[in-house]
Specification:
Blueprint lengths: L1 E5 L9 H15 L3 E5 L6 E4 L2 E7 L3 H11 L3 E4 L4 H12 L5 E3 L4 H9 L3 H12 L4 E4 L2 H9 L5 E3 L16 H4 L3 H4 L3 E5 L8 H6 L5 E5 L5 H7 L4 E4 L3 H10 L2 E4 L8 H8 L4 E3 L5 H4 L5 E3 L3 H8 L4 H8 L4 H11 L6 H5 L1
Parallel strand pairs: 1-2, 1-5, 5-6, 6-7, 7-8, 9-10, 9-12, 10-11, 12-13, 13-14
Antiparallel strand pairs: 3-4
């Protein structure tokens, strides 16, 4: 199948949306499918308000449509609700072409965290954007219920996976070992993800717990957090084997976000044998079990319980998440165009 995926989130951005799309596209191509990615790469762009590291592509519906038509797409998936997603949506709607969308982030809460906007106003946009889709792909049962409660009924599940690098055996990250935490007997507490306000990393760094706090990732809030929490170790972004080694070196992954729909880093940590501490919110409540994670409104309580969990049980649970299964779900959810695109191209 020839699949066009339109996304405002793409490399060099580093986030769960990009990593999910990259992994699923790799599986699709390995399975013999042709995939076109319409992304901000090479397009005129503007910095995103409040987050200038992210560029918003300026591409008209006609320009997006020309690329989809020239590719001969047999299905169109619109991954994000940004400018490119809007252009693709408009082009498909004008030609009565079916398409699927995905709800990757708690968009209303994300916008509220960054701008102070009323989430209910943002939900109006979310409903408008996704309502015409043949299917809205979501990662968990909680998010499915949330979208249905807000009037979106054509919802299908699309799970996540972990790469082959994430396994319980392997070398430890040298920079983690350099903290001396293990030699001192103090636990290593890890956060992995974009260092931005919506990730609520401050809750982790301010938690009154013993141990060495390590932050892997980069983003607009990093400099301010490094100044406020000088005892924490900020390693910057890590990938592949280096990231897996960081998970293995940690005694617990602390996931303080309240706005993620899934939290890919949680299953990566589990696959490396590392338990997770989190708030009892969408994402953690769908991914974690009493054997693999601890959730509490007091993060200190969740961390204390997570440190008692069995690493072998965590690794076994994490191994159940595969990108091959994720890609199969994605394929099943697509809405084939049939001859419709040839008629309007």
């Amino acid at each position: 199948m020839r699949i066009a995926i339109v996304t405002d989130a793409w490399a060099p951005q580093v986030n769960g949306v990009v990593r999910t799309l990259e992994a699923v596209i790799a599986e699709l191509r390995a399975g013999g499918h042709d995939v076109l990615v319409v992304s901000p790469s090479g397009a005129p762009s503007l910095p995103c308000p409040t987050y200038p590291e992210i560029r918003l592509a300026l591409m008209t519906p006609a320009a997006v449509g020309r690329r989809i038509a020239a590719f001969g797409a047999e299905a169109v998936h619109i991954a994000t609700e940004g400018p490119l997603g809007l252009s693709a949506r408009r082009w498909c709607r004008a030609r009565r072409l079916p398409f699927t969308t995905a709800y990757h982030t708690q968009f209303p809460d994300y916008v509220a965290a960054r701008t102070g906007a009323d989430p209910e106003w943002v939900w109006r946009y979310v409903r408008w954007f996704h309502e015409p889709a043949a299917a809205v792909l979501v990662s968990t049962a909680t998010i499915e219920r949330t979208l249905r409660a807000h009037g979106l009924s054509r919802v299908k599940r699309w799970g996540r996976g972990v790469g082959r690098a994430f396994r319980p055996e392997g070398a430890l990250e040298p920079r983690m070992a350099a903290t001396g935490a293990r030699a001192d007997g103090a636990p290593v507490l890890l956060h992995v993800g974009r260092v931005a306000v919506e990730k609520n990393i401050e809750a982790f760094l301010a938690a009154e717990v013993a141990g060495v706090k390590v932050v892997v990732g980069d983003g607009p809030a990093r400099a301010a957090l490094e100044r406020r929490f000088p005892d924490a170790l900020f390693l910057g972004a890590l990938f592949g084997e280096d990231l897996a080694a960081a998970y293995r070196a940690a005694d617990a992954l602390v996931f303080p976000s309240r706005t993620d729909t899934f939290g890919l880093v949680m299953i990566e940590a589990l696959a490396c044998g590392t338990p997770v501490a989190a708030f009892p919110v969408p994402g953690p409540v769908d991914v974690l079990t009493p054997a693999t994670g601890a959730m509490a409104e007091r993060l200190e309580e969740a961390i204390a319980r997570a440190l008692t969990l069995d690493r072998a049980a965590c690794a076994a649970a994490g191994a159940g998440f595969t990108w091959a299964a994720s890609a199969r779900q994605f394929l099943v959810a697509l809405a084939p165009l049939g001859a419709a695109l040839r008629m309007v191209a």
